[in-house]
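User: I've been trying to design a sequence by hand for this structure and keep getting stuck. Would you show me what you'd pick, starting by listing the structure so we're on the same page?

Assistant: Good idea, let's start from the same input. This is the structure you sent:
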């Protein structure tokens, strides 16, 4: 793999976690992007530990020997997850046409970068595709024989996109009341429980009871019938499940998932059709089922995966 040909800008979003940030910075340093944007939120008011940790993270960024251009956007005030990421990515896509994006706890296999760059270029003008993701949460299920598949879930623990897609991002989700009251989610999800689940989630996001930019981005993609490209094998591991995290505090089978290298050249599907089966599996293990049912589904999926690997090892 020749990462010297990587000329797509990389974006790193950071806050107050130097331990995980150091690992992600090391991965980005290994590929030395031609242009690195860093978006940093400021410490919470009156929080001395925050101030010290934010300062340590910023020092790490500026003291790393980057060969390419380093462009920083460091907020002095604490804006929060929703406002800081939203405003930061508006700033990035105001300057570049496409970018690869990582948060401070998303540790990629190095093949994630050329994978994203190739697909950004391949689908640059295809309005059907809005996101390239490095995540695979299928736990061993092979969706198709190609390098990636199409989904309507734009997982964002390591992802990439274009200005032409980000233009649809609306931090206020201003059309949500109309979408909800017109029952448009029933045209996206075919099971009532999914419609009910996402109606509750999006109501909470719209009313600012969930401080998240990611749900707003997923909603923007859905409103354009946008597809996400997901790899056949997981390329990025979330290493940030801990008490200090904003959203990923609990123990989870999605914490510190194994990453695998992407094989090149990429094998492109000869069609642009989302995998309904894969999306149904994702819904069952991540979203609309009850916590107890999701837990049982995760255990069942993991057991099948382990059993499949054991069979391969013993034959």
């Amino acid at each position: 793999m020749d990462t010297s040909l990587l000329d797509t800008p990389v974006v790193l979003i950071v806050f107050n976690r130097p331990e995980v940030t150091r690992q992600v910075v090391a991965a980005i340093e290994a590929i030395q992007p031609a242009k690195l944007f860093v978006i940093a939120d400021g410490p919470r008011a009156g929080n001395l530990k925050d101030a010290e940790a934010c300062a340590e993270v910023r020092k790490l960024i500026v003291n790393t020997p980057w060969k390419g251009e380093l462009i920083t956007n460091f907020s002095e005030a604490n804006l929060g997850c929703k406002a800081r990421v939203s405003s930061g990515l508006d700033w990035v896509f105001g300057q570049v046409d496409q970018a690869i994006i990582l948060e401070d706890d998303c540790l990629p296999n190095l093949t994630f970068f050329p994978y994203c760059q190739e697909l950004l270029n391949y689908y640059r003008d295809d309005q059907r595709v809005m996101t390239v993701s490095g995540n695979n949460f299928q736990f061993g299920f092979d969706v198709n024989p190609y390098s990636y598949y199409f989904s309507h879930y734009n997982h964002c623990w390591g992802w990439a996109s274009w200005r032409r897609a980000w233009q649809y991002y609306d931090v206020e989700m201003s059309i949500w009341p109309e979408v909800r009251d017109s029952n448009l989610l029933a045209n996206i999800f075919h099971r009532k429980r999914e419609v009910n689940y996402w109606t509750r989630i999006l109501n909470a996001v719209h009313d600012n009871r969930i401080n998240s930019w990611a749900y707003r981005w997923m909603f923007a993609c859905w409103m354009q019938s946008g597809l996400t490209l997901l790899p056949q094998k997981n390329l990025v591991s979330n290493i940030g499940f801990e008490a200090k995290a904003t959203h990923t505090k609990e123990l989870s089978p999605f914490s510190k998932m194994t990453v695998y290298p992407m094989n090149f050249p990429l094998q492109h599907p000869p069609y642009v059709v989302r995998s309904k089966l894969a999306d149904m599996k994702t819904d069952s293990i991540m979203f609309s089922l009850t916590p107890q049912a999701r837990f049982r589904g995760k255990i069942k999926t993991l057991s099948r995966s382990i059993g499949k690997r054991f069979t391969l090892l013993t034959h």
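That's my pick for every position. To get oriented when you compare it with your attempt: Residues 97 and 163 are 5 Å apart (CA to CA). The radius of gyration is 19 Å.
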